[in-house]
Specification:
The complex is a heterodimer of chains A (280) and B (288). Chain A has 280 residues and is mainly alpha-helical. Chain A has 12 helices and no strands. By secondary structure, chain B is an alpha/beta fold.
C-alpha cells in the first residue's frame, strides 16, 4: 500500500514538473520565434535608406520611414511631457501624502485605468479632442498615449518610493524639514533609479501602441507639421504597410517591426541594468 | 468696562488650558531650551503607550531615560519634538512646554519645534544619496531656497568638528555618507542634527547598533556637547546611563501595559539610593 502511494506521489511530481517546465519553454519559444522571425525578415530590408528616406509613392523604388520614426519620437516626447508630471506627482501622493483609504481609492482607479484597452483610450481622445477640433492631430495622439502612461508611471513611482526606508523620512523630518521638502530632497532622490525604471517601462509600453493612434494621429506622409496636424508614427505605418498588397511596402513593414522591437528590447535591457545596479 | 471683562475671560481661558503658564521663572535671563513635561500620555491608535509622565528637564545636563524594553522610553522621547505624531496613529495628551510654551498648542508648527529640538535615532540614518558634506548641510539646504556655498562649508565644518568627526572625514567630504563605519555614521547624524543649531538634542538609543569603542566615542562626545546643549538620551544600557548622565528617569510598564515614570532624580541618587523598590530591582539586575 505504502509503495503504491509513493509511486503515485512520485509520478504526480514528475508530471507536474514536466508540465510546468514545458509551459515555461513554450512561452520562451514564442518569444524566440517572434524575435527571430522579426529579425530575420526585418534585417534584410533594414538599411540606411530606411532610416533616412521618406516614404515613396507606390511603385517607386526605395523609400524609408524617416518621417514616421521622427513622428514616433515626437509622440513619445509629447506623451512623456504630459504624463510624467501627473504620474510622478500621483505616485508621490500615493506613497507620501495619501491616507490609507484615499491611497486605496486612487490606487484602485490607477489600476483600472491601466487596464483600460488602449483602443478605448484612443476613442476617448478622439471624442474629447479630435471631434471638437475637427482635425486629427499629434496633440490628441500625445494625450491618448499620456493617459496610458500615467497609471504605469504613478504605480511604479509609488512602489519605488515605498522602498525608501521610513527611517529616512523620520531623519529628514527630525531636522525640521517640511514634509514636501523632505520628499523632494531626500525621498525622491533615494528612489530615483526605481522611478527612472518605471518611466522607461512606460515609454516602452507606449512606443509600440497602435490602436489609440488610429483615431488620433491618423498618419501623414509629410512628417511633423505642427501639434494640431496629423502625424505619422512607426507602429501606424507598420500596420498600414503590412496590410498593403505591395511587396516592397510589406518589406518595409518588416524593417519597421524590427526597429520597433529593437527599441523596446533595448529599453527593457537598460531597465534591467538599472534595477540590478540599484539592488546591489 | 467691556474690555476688562474680555480680558478676564481671556485669563480664565488661558488658565483653563493650563499648558501655557510660564515656567522656570527662577532661571537666569536668556536661558533657552527649558523643557517641561506635564501629564503627558501618548497613544498608538487606541493603545496607550505612555501614561501620565511629568518631568522637568535640566538644561545643559544629560538626562538619561532608562527602563526595560517596551516601557515607552522611545515613545516618550519622540513626544518631546513632536515626532510621535509622525508614527501611524500617534496621538498625545498633556503638555510639553518649551520655554513655557506648549509645543502642542494649535498655532505651533512642528517643523519649528524640531528645529529647536534635534533628534538622533537608534539606527544610523545618513541620507544614502548624499555625500558627507551634503548630509550635514541637508538641514539648512532643505529649509531654505538657496544657500551660499561658503556659509554651508562653515556650517558643515563646525558641525563635523562638534561631532568629533572632522579629522576623520575632512579629506573625503564628497564621499557617500553610507561609506562610513557605523559609529562614524552615527556621529555624522549627530553632526547633521547639530548643524541646524538646536537647543536640545534627543538621542534615541544612539549606541545600541555600535561596538564598544564607537559607543565610548559617542559618550565622550556627549560629555563635550553638554556644555552647550541640553541632552536627553534613551538607553537600555544602565552602565551607559550611569557613566554619562547627570539626571536619570526610570520608566516601567504598568499593569495596563502602558509605560509610566517610576522615579526621576540625579543619576547618583537613582543608582546608589533608589527610592522605589522597582527601580532598585531593575538596577540591581533582578529583572529586565
Amino acid at each position: 500500500m505504502a509503495d503504491i502511494g509513493y509511486l503515485r506521489r512520485k509520478w504526480f511530481d514528475r508530471t507536474m514538473s514536466v508540465l510546468s517546465s514545458s509551459a515555461a519553454g513554450l512561452a520562451i519559444l514564442a518569444l524566440a520565434l517572434i524575435l527571430g522571425y522579426t529579425v530575420v525578415q526585418g534585417i534584410a530590408f533594414f538599411n540606411l535608406d530606411f532610416l533616412t528616406q521618406t516614404a515613396k509613392p507606390v511603385g517607386a523604388e526605395g523609400g524609408g520611414m524617416r518621417n514616421e520614426i521622427f513622428g514616433s519620437l515626437i509622440l513619445i516626447v509629447l506623451a512623456s511631457v504630459l504624463a510624467l508630471p501627473v504620474g510622478l506627482m500621483a505616485g508621490i501622493f500615493l506613497s507620501e501624502f495619501a491616507g490609507p483609504k484615499m491611497a486605496y481609492a486612487v490606487r484602485f482607479a490607477a489600476d483600472i485605468l491601466a487596464g483600460v484597452p488602449s483602443i478605448v483610450v484612443g476613442v476617448f481622445a478622439y471624442a474629447i479632442l479630435v471631434r471638437p477640433m475637427h482635425s486629427y492631430s499629434a496633440l490628441s495622439a500625445g494625450v491618448a498615449l499620456a493617459i496610458i502612461m500615467v497609471p504605469v508611471v504613478a504605480r511604479t513611482a509609488e512602489e519605488s518610493l515605498r522602498l525608501v526606508p521610513n527611517s529616512m523620512r523620520e531623519a529628514a523630518l527630525a531636522l525640521g524639514i517640511t514634509r514636501s521638502r523632505a520628499v523632494l530632497g531626500v525621498i525622491v532622490p533615494g528612489a530615483l533609479t526605481g522611478i527612472a525604471t518605471g518611466v522607461m517601462l512606460a515609454v516602452a509600453r507606449i512606443a509600440g501602441e497602435t490602436a489609440p493612434l488610429i483615431f488620433t494621429a491618423l498618419g501623414s506622409q509629410f512628417g511633423f507639421q505642427g501639434l494640431l496636424k496629423p502625424i505619422g508614427a512607426l507602429p501606424l505605418q507598420i500596420f498600414r504597410y503590412a496590410m498593403s498588397p505591395y511587396t516592397d511596402w510589406r518589406q518595409q513593414a518588416w524593417a519597421g517591426a524590427f526597429l520597433l522591437t529593437l527599441l523596446v528590447l533595448g529599453i527593457s535591457i537598460i531597465v534591467r541594468r538599472l534595477s540590478n545596479r540599484s539592488r546591489s | 468696562m467691556e474690555k476688562k471683562t474680555g480680558a478676564i475671560i481671556q485669563d480664565m481661558v488661558n488658565e483653563g488650558s493650563s499648558c501655557n503658564v510660564t515656567a522656570g521663572s527662577g532661571l537666569p535671563e536668556g536661558t533657552r531650551g527649558i523643557l517641561e513635561v506635564s501629564n503627558l500620555s501618548a497613544w498608538y491608535g487606541k493603545t496607550l503607550a505612555v501614561k501620565d509622565v511629568s518631568l522637568a528637564i535640566q538644561t545643559q545636563a544629560i538626562t538619561a531615560i532608562i527602563g526595560p524594553s517596551g516601557c515607552g522610553k522611545s515613545t516618550l522621547i519622540r513626544c518631546l519634538n513632536r515626532m510621535h505624531e509622525v508614527s501611524h496613529g500617534g496621538r498625545v495628551s498633556g503638555c510639553v512646554r518649551l520655554d513655557g510654551r506648549d509645543i502642542y498648542a494649535r498655532d505651533v508648527d512642528p517643523v519649528v519645534i524640531r528645529r529647536r529640538i534635534g533628534m538622533v535615532f537608534q539606527k544610523p540614518s545618513p541620507f544614502p544619496t548624499m555625500s558627507i558634506f551634503d548630509n550635514v548641510a541637508a538641514g539648512l539646504r532643505l529649509t531654505r531656497l538657496w544657500s551660499r556655498k561658503w556659509e554651508l562649508a562653515e556650517v558643515v565644518e563646525r558641525g563635523l568638528k562638534q561631532a568629533a568627526l572632522w579629522d576623520e572625514v575632512k579629506d573625503k567630504l564628497d564621499q557617500s555618507g553610507a561609506s562610513l563605519s557605523g559609529g562614524q555614521q552615527q556621529r555624522l547624524c549627530i553632526a547633521r542634527a547639530l548643524a541646524v543649531e538646536p537647543e536640545i538634542l534627543l538621542l534615541d538609543e544612539p549606541c545600541s547598533a555600535l561596538d564598544p569603542v564607537a559607543t565610548l566615542k559617542i559618550e565622550d562626545l556627549m560629555r563635550t556637547l553638554v556644555k552647550d546643549y541640553t541632552i536627553i538620551i534613551v538607553t537600555h544600557n544602565m552602565q551607559q546611563a550611569a557613566r554619562v548622565s547627570d539626571m536619570a528617569a526610570f520608566m516601567m510598564m504598568g499593569d495596563d501595559k502602558a509605560g509610566g515614570l517610576v522615579e526621576y532624580g540625579t543619576t547618583n541618587q537613582l543608582f546608589t539610593n533608589p527610592k522605589d523598590k522597582r527601580t532598585e530591582d531593575y538596577i540591581t539586575g533582578r529583572f529586565g
